[in-house]
Write a structure and sequence with these properties.
Strand order of the largest sheet of chain A: 6-7-8-3-9-10
CATH topology of the domain at 20-106 and 168-257 in chain A: Rossmann fold
Strand content of chain A: 15-25%
Structural class of chain B: mainly alpha
Largest sheet of chain A: 6 strands, mixed
Number of helices of chain B: 16
Shape of chain B: globular
Strand content of chain B: under 5%
Order of helices and strands of chain B: HHHHHHHHHHHHHHHEEH
Order of helices and strands of chain A: EEEHEEHEHHHEHEHEEHH
Distance between the termini of chain B: 42 Å
Number of strands of chain B: 2
Structural class of chain A: alpha/beta
Oligomer: heterodimer
Radius of gyration of chain A: 18 Å
Helix content of chain A: 25-40%
Strand order of the largest sheet of chain B: 1-2
CATH architecture of the domain at 20-106 and 168-257 in chain A: 3-Layer(aba) Sandwich
């Protein structure tokens, strides 16, 4: 069902903008009216890896992703893209520099067609309409939504909506993509299929993936490294094996689930 | 099917709309002078409402200020073409070139397009970062300001008295021609890159930003184009009436034009055009009934004021049964069997209620 991804030529798009080798948070803190959502969080996402971000509800995972994509200004600390300090960048600028994201709620352009949803990013990144269409076709082909290109996005089945959200983020091969619970609400089989897709992103797009996911087993399966948040603070970071043996993690998170 | 046919089929919506209006214009030839006046006014309103659509329809932000641009456009046209003898006495604040000359119609229209666009650019820089209600209220504030300035700046607007001696060169066919121009411009924008990105921000502003869309810039472009088209409508209006005051460019015109857009279906160009035609038709029928008709020997006349009440009722009924307007937010296309090879340019339908 899944095809190889062949990216069309992209005239007028400055690829040098998106060649950063890592995206990092340096001592990030976000406080909402005195209430800390996250504090003192540091992590580095490399290209070519799937990096898992886990933690119980309210641990600050989405807030962290918002900071890393320009949707939330940190109260303290910095977000660095390669060597560049991103202070003052808009969300659109983050995307233009190769930092893409999806949303927990999907947030598709529901009244627009499936292919238009993907074209929007192409246009936003400077492609002509014609080129954006061509890129969108290649992307839908890869993700397996070609036959639904003309449907309104809101009419898609739930799992397809999630895939479309990812397609919209991946057009023109960003350097990093941050996926906020892409498999939420899916059955085990659907989830597994989606995770195969996620696992193939780094090699297909030379793109680093930060994956927020509730299901520990799933994250352990495809992440090279995992970062655990709890109550807005870093609890642990390491390989899946290290995380599984980490006592604080077991106490705070695994124990709770078991 | 040749390339030309495919192209026609793909972009059939504006052509069909122009054809539809042309049909109405031809039918109007059968009527008397009063029908010609009604038609001219209707076509000018098509220009204005299509102008409104460019911003409101694509951005999803209601603007009460576009009639302010219409006012600016109307006065720009009047400054160009009103009788020099009048301008030299009453409008002494105007540049001498304008005072001493009666410029041609095309200069008037050019002014009616450019001046509102310029003002919209300045205003838009300030308020386009606002969203939702805040943006709408800011545009309302702008309408109030324009009205006050034009009602009080005696040396260039003649204040509350009228500017007279504007050549009445706009009849039904001229107005029809400009409505076609407005439709083409609005359509071109709608299917452009900027139009695509702006419609995305209408559906979900946050997601649009994540897709690298510079939302404020897209809105600004639409706002300026919208002001240019609406201003052009104002210029036509001045050259249709021949006499100009600020009074018409205020709340009631602002509301009726927005009502036309909403009744037609604010998310589509088809909605903008059909809204004007439908509301005009309802108004004319009610006006006729108010004047009284004779049916089989009995004279029937509605009491005075029933025209407004009737219009209100009809609009409410339409919106109750079609919350997304007469067009349901879709575009007019021929049944696709006829043009089976080429689907028309996709412009998103808007099937659910705008909240």
């Amino acid at each position: 069902m899944q095809h190889a991804y062949v990216e069309p030529a992209a005239r007028g798009v400055d690829r040098a903008l998106t060649n950063a080798s890592d995206l990092s948070a340096d001592g990030l803190a976000v406080r909402f009216q005195g209430l800390a959502a996250i504090s003192g969080v540091s992590l580095t996402l490399h290209r070519h890896e799937v990096f898992g971000l886990i933690g119980p509800n309210g641990a600050g995972k989405t807030t962290l992703v918002n900071c890393l994509t320009g949707f939330q200004r940190p109260t303290e600390g910095r977000v660095l893209l390669g060597e560049a300090d991103t202070a003052g960048w808009s969300a659109a600028e983050f995307r233009a520099r190769g930092v893409a994201r999806t949303f927990q709620a999907g947030r598709l352009f529901r009244d627009m067609s499936v292919i238009e949803n993907v074209e929007v990013t192409g246009a936003g990144l400077g492609l002509s309409l014609r080129a954006a269409r061509e890129h969108a076709r290649a992307m839908l082909d890869w993700i397996g939504l070609s036959d639904k290109a003309g449907l309104p996005a809101g009419a898609l089945a739930y799992t397809d909506q999630r895939r479309l959200g990812i397609a919209r983020a991946l057009i023109l091969s960003p350097a990093f993509v941050l996926l906020d619970e892409p498999a939420a609400g899916m059955s085990d089989a659907e989830c597994e299929e989606l995770m195969d897709l996620v696992a193939s992103i780094p090699s297909t797009f030379t793109c680093g993936v930060l994956l927020i996911e509730h299901n520990m087993r799933v994250v352990m399966g495809i992440s090279q490294r995992i970062h655990v948040l709890d109550g807005g603070r870093t609890l642990a970071e390491g390989t899946p094996g290290e995380i599984q043996r980490h006592e604080a993690v077991i106490a705070a998170y695994l124990g709770m689930e078991a | 099917m040749g390339t030309a046919m495919r192209l026609l089929a793909r972009h059939q919506t504006p052509l069909l709309l122009i054809l539809l209006l042309g049909l109405i214009a031809v039918l109007g030839l059968l009527g008397g002078d009063s029908v010609q006046v009604t038609l001219t006014e209707m076509f000018i309103r098509v220009v204005v409402v299509v102008g409104l659509f460019v911003f409101i329809g694509n951005s999803g932000i209601i603007s009460f200020g576009q009639v302010g641009f219409m006012c600016i456009g109307a006065y720009a046209a009047a400054w160009a073409t009103a009788e020099p003898s009048f301008k030299q006495i009453m409008l002494q604040g105007l540049p001498v070139v304008l005072q001493e000359n009666q410029l041609p119609f095309w200069v008037a229209i050019l002014g009616a397009v450019l001046l509102p666009a310029l003002v919209a650019f300045g205003l838009g820089l300030a308020i386009m970062r606002l969203s939702g209600t805040a943006a709408s209220i800011a545009t309302f504030a702008f309408l109030i300001i324009v009205n006050s300035v034009y009602a009080n700046w005696d040396s260039v607007t003649a204040g509350v008295s009228s500017i007279v001696g504007i050549p009445t060169v706009v009849g039904p066919w001229t107005a029809y021609g400009f409505s076609g121009l407005a439709i083409l411009a609005a359509y071109g924008f709608q299917v452009s890159r900027v139009g695509l990105m702006l419609r995305a921000s209408r559906d979900d502003e946050v997601a649009a930003r994540a897709c690298a869309v510079k939302v404020v810039r897209m809105r600004l472009i639409a706002f300026v184009l919208s002001a240019a088209i609406t201003g052009m409508g104002g210029g036509l209006y001045a050259q249709f009436l021949g006499i100009l005051t600020v009074d018409p460019f205020y709340l009631s015109l602002s509301f009726i034009t927005i009502a036309m857009l909403v009744v037609g279906g604010q998310a589509s160009l088809t909605g903008a055009v059909t809204g004007v035609v439908a509301v005009t038709a309802v108004v004319e029928v009610l006006r006729l009934l108010e004047r009284g008709i004779t049916l089989g020997g009995t004279a029937l006349a509605l009491p005075a004021g029933s025209q407004e009440i009737g219009l209100g009722l009809v609009m409410a009924l339409i919106l109750i049964f079609r919350p997304n307007g007469l067009s349901r937010g879709r575009e007019l296309v021929l049944p696709s069997r006829r043009f089976g090879f080429a689907a028309p340019a996709r412009i998103s339908p808007r099937p659910k209620a705008a909240s």
